[in-house]
TrEMBL record:
CDD domains: 7tm_TAS2R14-like. Residues 23-246 form the G-protein coupled receptors family 1 profile domain. InterPro entries: GPCR_Rhodpsn_7TM (IPR017452), TAS2R (IPR007960). It comes from Castor canadensis. It holds the Pfam family TAS2R. One of its GO terms (molecular function) is bitter taste receptor activity. This is Taste receptor type 2. It is found in: Membrane. One of its GO terms (cellular component) is membrane. It is a multi-pass membrane protein.
Amino acid sequence: MSNVVQSTLTVILRVGFVLGNLGNGFIALVNCMDWVKRRKMSSVDQILTALAISRLGVLWIVLLDCWVSVTFPENWISEKMLRLTYFIRHVSTHFSIWFATSLSIYYFLKIANFSNSNFLYLKFRVKKVVSVTLLVSLVLLFFKIVLLSTHFGFTIDTCKTNMSHSFNLTQVVQFSKLYLFTNTVFTSIPFLVSLITFLLLIISLWKHHKKMQQSGIGSRDASTMAHIKALKMAIASLLLYTIFFVFLLLKIWSFKFLEQNLLILFSLASGISFASGHSCVLILGNSRLRRASLLLLWRLRCRCKGVRPLSP
């Protein structure tokens, strides 16, 4: 049974890595080309580009981590390599998650309609809200790194005292447990923020739909369609986010019951699936990116058939 699970997770890792690089690379490339052409980039495109670049970093760091741990297991288990691996992977994953959360906040403030004065204040200062959100994430990142580094140093000192200056696998497992728990606690913050924006967007759509019915106006107006489009993206994004978050909880609960290799594969598969799947959702939900992807597929199809594509 474990061999089947391991093979399945390995396939998910490979497919997710390829799709993640293609999807996030496409988002970053299209936005950068558009920025060079127009000499400016909108706020949402800036967030999308930063998100895509951070996720490319996550994917390649995971690949490098796997390669080093398999090719040079002695070096991977060393203190310096383990500290560096956890730090780089954590920082890249942190920015990836918080850029996605900032994108949810941006869409919510741009599309939702509430008469509350506090909401209107935030709505007209959406750029500042996103900037403050990212600054808060940096503060949380600092506290998390301090917490993990402190415990990591304590683990190293204890291990050297008890094991004659050797760094054994037991200490790695103990630190991994703390890392999983700490990562889950800090990841719950952006997850809850994304969930709250999703629920508020539903409330906004319900109020807007009720208002349109009372005034006798059709329910297919621009605001309703914008709400529905944003909700479709939010549902897909939140579903992937939920799967990723649930896997974090399951990894803590099942740490003693799963083999170490399966635990590592579960961890990598959940992270890569979230990074690659969300990029596809963003491309399909963004009209400009969707048109660019369809144009690219059309040109590739023409080249495969030996037909010279016409200029659009």
